[in-house]
Request: fold
Amino acid sequence: MSDALSPHEQGVLALERRGWASAGAKERAVREELGLAPVRYYQLLNALLDDPRALAHDPVTVNRLRRVRDARRAER
Reply:
């Protein structure tokens, strides 16, 4: 495994880093900028949250998203 994220993986984190006025705007950006269906985007994003390379690349975003994911799991 390489030490660096691919440009595509970096794009997923960069898109997640941005603020969104609505879920629809984010889904549109996922399709237009990354060429992914929203379901596939979230699958990739979730995998990145467990990837140490993603944490090294963008620790603020990854840690924030891990906290959100953990809080949602705790609610179940």
About this structure: The chain is about 75% helix and 0% strand. The helical segments are 7-17, 23-34, 38-49, 52-57, 59-75.
